[in-house]
Structures are given as structure tokens and as C-alpha cells.
Amino acid sequence: MHEGAVSTRLGLRGWPSVAEDVIVARNVILSEYTGAHIHMQHISSRYSVEIIRRAKARGVRITAEATPHHLAFTDEELRTYDTNFKMNPPLRTASHRRAIIAGLRDGTLDCISTDHAPHTDYEKDKEFDYAPNGILGLETALAVCLEVLVGQNKFKLTDVIDRMTRLPAQILGLAAGTLAAGAPADVCLFDPKENGNTT
After folding, report:
1. Cα–Cα distances in angstroms (integers) from residue 91 to residues 18, 133, 154, in the given order
2. Catalytic entry in 21, 82, 115, 129
3. DSSP reduced 3-state for 148
4. Alpha-helical runs (H) found in 58-165
5. pLDDT tens per residue across span 19-72
6. In degrees rounded to 5, what are phi and psi of residue 189?
7. pTM
């Protein structure tokens, strides 16, 4: 749970965004000092986005990613104590969400990954403090990114697909996600206009 107005109203222990910011800043400093490449996962804080943006401007060898759930949801989803929205890092406020979208738009955040961490209903159906962190993401990632990034924020479809395929593979040094001659045929066909209704 993000530390803020919602956590205070709900009487839940909050996890401040500064906890993430300190680790991101530390990792940037270490990367800059050693010259080593570092990849930052699951960025959820607007300050972390700014730290990464400034580090890249200085030439620090850093890449970073966003998740579909941090693009789509805020801590307001937890108003009903729904543990399906309990995750690590937590959903943050709308201003953090907007900063993540802006970071993807300007290339501060290089790619999108799911942080797929599903749990059964009975695992999640517990008091908030005892429910595990995690949310499914693999099955919904493309639809969420198409809705939030392409539909609502006018990203180009090709840019979103690039951030979900070629760029993650490039960061990991994999010969994937390119559709180049001789590359693995890792292809997914989809209809961007399909709404998922089967009736």
C-alpha cells in the first residue's frame, strides 16, 4: 500500500515512494561509479523516473521498465481493501502514474514487463496484511497497454509493441522480438479492435 491519503483513510501501513527512490538513486550511483549496466525493474515512483531521466542524460548505463498495472491503476483501487491490488511495489497516486506514462513516452523507461505474480483466490482472500503481494499480468498486458497507452494516451501502436518485444530482448541480449530474417518466429497475432467479449 502506497503511503498517502488513501492508506491513512484505510488505516493501513503505507510504503512511501521514497523507499524506492533511495534504492534507484543508490543503484544509479553504483552504475555511474563502476561503469556497469544496471536494469531497474517495476518503476512506480515519479521521483524514480526523474532520477533515471537525469542519469541517462549524464550517460549512465541504465535501463528501466514499467508494468501494465502501474500504468493503469492507482492506490484508489484499494479503497475497498481489495487484496488483488496489493503488490510490490505498491500502486501509487495518479501523479506517479502520469510520470510513468511520460517516462515511457520520452524513453526514460525503456520497456514494459508484466511482473506476472498470480495467486489463487483463497491466497488473496485474507486480511490485507496477510495477503500475498502480486497481480496477474501475462494474459492482460497487451490489452491493458493498448487501452492505456494507445487508446487513452495516443502512443503509436508500433512504439508500444516495440517496448514489449524488441527492446526487452535487446536489453537482455536475446535474438528475439525483431522479425528479422533468421530470427525465431516469436509472433503473436491480435486484433487491436477486439474487445474480448465472446457473446
Report:
1. 14, 11, 23
2. 115
3. helix
4. 68-72, 94-105, 121-124, 141-145, 157-164
5. 999 999 999 999 999 999 999 999 999 999 999 999 999 999 999 999 999 999
6. -100, 135
7. 0.92
Are 75 and 2 contacting, i.e. CB atoms less than 8 angstroms apart?
Answer: yes
Strand partners, 2: 15
Catalytic residue list contains 82: no
The whole-angstrom separation of Cα 178 and Cα 186 is 9
- For residue 18, give the C-alpha cell: 521514497
The answer to whether the beta carbons of residues 82 and 135 sit under 8 Å apart is no
Length of the chain measured in residues: 199
Alpha helices in 108-193 (DSSP H): 121-124, 141-145, 157-164, 166-172
Cα–Cα dist 156/36, whole Å? 32
* 52 and 29 Cβ atoms separated by less than 8 Å: no
Identify which of 80, 91, 72, 88 has the alpha carbon closest to the alpha carbon of residue 4. Answer: 91
Contacts of 104 (CB under 8 A, 6+ apart): 66, 71, 112, 149, 155, 163
Residue type, 129: D
Identify the three-state secondary structure at position 15: strand
